[in-house]
Amino acid sequence: MVSELLASAIRMGLPVLLAALGAVYSERSGVVNIGLEGMMITGSFWGAVGAYYAGPLAGMALAVAASVLMALVHAVVSVTFRVDQIVSGVALNILAYGAARFSSIALFQKATMSPHVQGFTPISVPGLDQVPWLKPLVTNLSPLVVVGFLLVPLSYWVIEKTVFGLRLRAVGENPLAADTLGLKVFHLRYAGVLLSGVLAGLAGAYLSVEHTGMYVEGMTQGKGYIALAAMIFGNWSPVGAMGAALLFGFAESLSFRVVESAVVPYQFIKMIPYALTLVVLAGVLKRTRPPAADGIPYEREEA
Amino acid sequence: MAFLELREVTKRFPGVVANDRISLEIDRGEIRALVGENGAGKSTLMKVLSGLYQPDAGEIRLDGRRVVIDSPRRAIELGIGMVHQHFMLIPRFTVLENIVLGSEPARGGLLREREARRIVGELCQKYEFTLDLGARVEDLSVGAQQRVEILKVLYRGAEILILDEPTAVLAPQEVRELFVNLRHLRDQGKTIIFISHKLDEVLEIADRISVLRRGVLVGTVRREETERAALARMMVGRPVLLELEKGPYRPGEDRLVVEDLTVPGPGGRPAVRRVSLRVRAGEIYGIAGIEGNGQSELVEALSGLRRASAGRILIGGVSVTEATMRRMRPVTEGRVRRARPVAEGRVRRLRELGLAHIPEDRQRRGLILAMTVWENGVLGLHRSPSFARRGWLQVRPIKKHAQSLVREFDIRLPGLDIPVRNVSGGNQQKLILARELGREPTLIVASQPTRGLDIGATEFVRQQLLRARDRGRAVLLVSADLEEVLSLSDRVGVMYGGELVAEFRPGEVTPEEIGHYMLGGRARATEAAVGGTRGADGAGGTGGAGGGVGPAGGTGGAAGADGGVRGRGGAGEAGGTGGGMA
Ligand SMILES: Nc1ncnc2c1ncn2[C@@H]1O[C@H](COP(=O)(O)OP(=O)(O)O)[C@@H](O)[C@H]1O
Ligand SMILES: [Mg+2]
Asked: Taking the model in full, what pTM does it have?
């Protein structure tokens, strides 16, 4: 029972985790990416398209490609042209919504949903699947779940231990200092934003291809924003983001269970995860510390 | 042949020629000082050398070969490293990370931390730098941060080190330490270009001194062949008054009383801790200390811009601490009288009580850059009946007022209708001073009033503050420039870590001793003295006399007996016991 709840929390939390990891890369390089939501919408739609025509792997590839394209737009607009990062991100979100709807009509003759699509074959962790109480946690898993949780230590390692990570962080903390040391500020910021595009695309594709089995308009339900909150809650670190994403997933899966036995109006139950996010954020914000140059476009001083 | 040679280097900015055909020859293993007033073009010239700016004309030769330095990266390849006036460090990174960033020892993209530590450790040893490589830069003292900056440059193999005003932010001890390091570097064959406008320092450290004035090289002299006054004349182009005129010290009643004031800083932790001081009519009370030790927060609390969490502030006997603000009680000999109700607005109330504020960030807090000179001249006075009628500004009187300020304070402007943004720094500060002093305030809080000004404007601002004092105003002067504090003030307090760690009269203590306090040293006495000192405070508070008790003066409590070293963790030798008896 507990492990079932946990397994469900993991399934619900995964898209938030993936997108939040993406946000970590972007924000550590100094670029706020509120466009995550739009990138997830894009990922969920194109994931379904790819999976519908050529299978789940193609879905993932298409979702990532489409989402990275949006990330590229965000980078060009906010890094190269120094447009306010929030404005650029919000614009992307609006664009993504309309573009998904338009493309859906064009491809599926329906504005709001795709036909059913086939996901990956679920996998089990060999050995552990024999332990009864672990069973719900280690069997019938989407490969993306495994990938997502492997990405946590990997991201930690990349950000904290590699030269790339050091430079990425440097650019997010003090781009001027980084510039005087010969670091390529713009390249690094592009890398951060594009990586967030990759991960947000995967997060979206997971929702449609793996979790639901089809694309439905509005299926991201603001998870891109929740991911941003999870990243803040997790103090801009991969491990912290994972904790926050799991907490959100847990609240969401709990809300499903409460519904099943409900006395409280359904709408209130659905609010739980979001209200929780608000409460947690309000309580935590004071103790977190964003990268010093987060959200500030870098302009080279020249004569 | 010179190691580094500049030939007719010219750099123009819109409206100014920052460097006008400058030619310099610098030898290997020399410490060359570059002096000049603010705006003389020193930083610009060095930015040309370090690849941040491209010269409009002229050439640079290194070891006889002509070089083009088109980027900071190229400068480093050529062995030219710049230690910037504003540190280029990442506070959250460790010392080691800051040093190796950009040329990290790595294998397969993975940072080799042990290797980095070894290389940097060897550098530290070779040049005798003491630094904890694992410490976070944000936890270091300014002096240590500067060593990190120097090491950054050495790590990249610099043969020529450029230091832009490296001593501006240091305490005297730290300056000495820096000079020791610089001499070491020179003795090992490094060439050092040292920028400053403090002549004493230059005369101490440099082998040769080049003087810039308004973008032009006035000349280069050997250290042995010059002296202070001559250099000052070269810098300014006319003889300079190095002494200030100051009337006799005749302090009057308390104008500002601060009692046990605690003020939270940006992070919520107290930035000012239980500070008590009083400033009287006709005196300048100077606050010395390295920046970032609570001075800014103290000033913000005094000027109504930041909320204190404990303690009291009294201006002219009226308590203005937030908690008691609404009632505005003048405290007279223990009895409480209701004050005339004052219109709402905290800062406005303070100003109505006679406070004038000369803020440290003059461009953000002192002026509205996009507004014209005449508009800025009336800020804060715009409600007075002579300038506003039923909510309408009376433009003609306001302009006349601005005109008189400009005349009286010798502000040089093309016109009253230009935005303040287009006025030079010195004249901006003069405008603030004119506006604030023109109101005939009773208490003046001046924060870093001469920062970034040229010698002429600095002289003027100091003279104005002294004149205000001589006319019976109370002045609280906060400055990171120790020399300034000591030359202007009648009494001096030193802040460290948010506390007022010492209080004395200038001339009673040596700069070294002050430096000791600035760096967190405690007054030399034991815990036993604390009670005594506190007692003296209490007595002073009720009796209405000044703060501490002089080392020699056992007459604590009597008016005029203040001064002497008062320490929080103790007191100067006799001061503690003297205070105890008072
Ligand atoms: N980036 C810039 N743009 C325009 N003018 C500048 C710039 N940098 C410096 N100046 C001007 O060039 C002159 C020299 O400045 P600077 O080299 O900073 O002087 P110093 O370092 O000797 O105080 C000043 O008049 C200054 O206003
Ligand atoms: Mg300068």
From this structure: 0.73
